Amino acid sequence: MNSQVNRVLVVSAAMGEGHNATGRALEDAAVRLWPGASVTWLDTLEVMGAGVGPVFRWIYVSNVQTTPWLYEFFYRSLWRYRWFAEASKRFVGAWAGRRLARRVAAIRPDLVISTYPLGTAGLEWLRRHGRLPVPAGAWISDFAPHPFWVYGDIDLNLVMHQCAVRPALRCVPGAPVAVSAPPVRGDFQPGDAEAARAKLGLPAGAFIALVSCGSLGFGDVEDAATELLGAHPDVVPVVVCGRNESLRRRLAPLAEREPRLRLLGWTDEMPAYTVAADVVVTNAGGATGLEALACGRPVLMHRPIAAHGKANAALMAEAGLAVVCARDGELAAAVRALIADPGQWKAMAEAATRHCSSTGALTEGLKALSATREA
């Protein structure tokens, strides 16, 4: 049954751009499925209080860049100690839920979509307190779910691959879990690589390696660019620095010495660059990895960031959708192997395309969610 939904609420957060990118893809799908529906957004961190967003973003970036051991410790503790995960989720859920309650009541949505784990915690709190009678689901954009992503009292937890169902149920046994199509905008799809290269001014015969590490552009991006330049004379690295102007400035001298290296700041042409690429090099396995898969592009996970980045890389490799390059020289070796053996590249590209086609349309997940509370 495809009953009309008039008001959709997207609960996200500006923690980089990945969660909002997932939300925009779901908004587009919802409007296609229910023409005329209105879509309202809430930023979980803004709703939680003034200054919460900047503090949480600072903690996240500092943990990844400066104290990855602390981030790893927290991540491992969520898995190792169920009481710790449950206590943490209930604390955050009460904090976010109380703040969300009035806003959600004022919006009066017919359907609620969460793309941010703290937002989902708040929605579960509302559900437990009888204040969320409409369907509510979470799109888990990390390839590998972790305990803060999965909730038993919302209607649907949507993961990105069949191999992610098992770890999701390990997080919360008995939770409602389903597999979703990658939540990416519709312009991320397989296309004509040569046409995309001509449009972007990229060389037709080169091996294009798109390096994209999210809007924050953190991780060992400079080392990735250097390795790619040394891997093979046909390699043209295209490094997307996102909003990290410091990274762009640091890479500028290398680009002046090595004209093959292309540097980009923030760009709205990511679908075209992804289609133009032979491979996508990233380090976290969130939205960028999903966009690459949607375009049928192999993913090389270069020195995955701590905690969820390493988990995403491992699960993507297990699914045959990525090659993990954790040590010095492994990225260059992986690229040389793909250049030497086009059959390997083709197999990875076909695996990505096959996965995306097997999960159906993004609208199917929305229909499944909307049906969860029908009489």
Automatic annotation (TrEMBL):
Signal peptide: none annotated. Pfam families: Glyco_tran_28_C, MGDG_synth. Transmembrane segments: none annotated. Keywords: Glycosyltransferase, Transferase. Residues 35-169 form the Diacylglycerol glucosyltransferase N-terminal domain. Belongs to the glycosyltransferase 28 family. It comes from Amycolatopsis pigmentata. This is Glycosyltransferase.
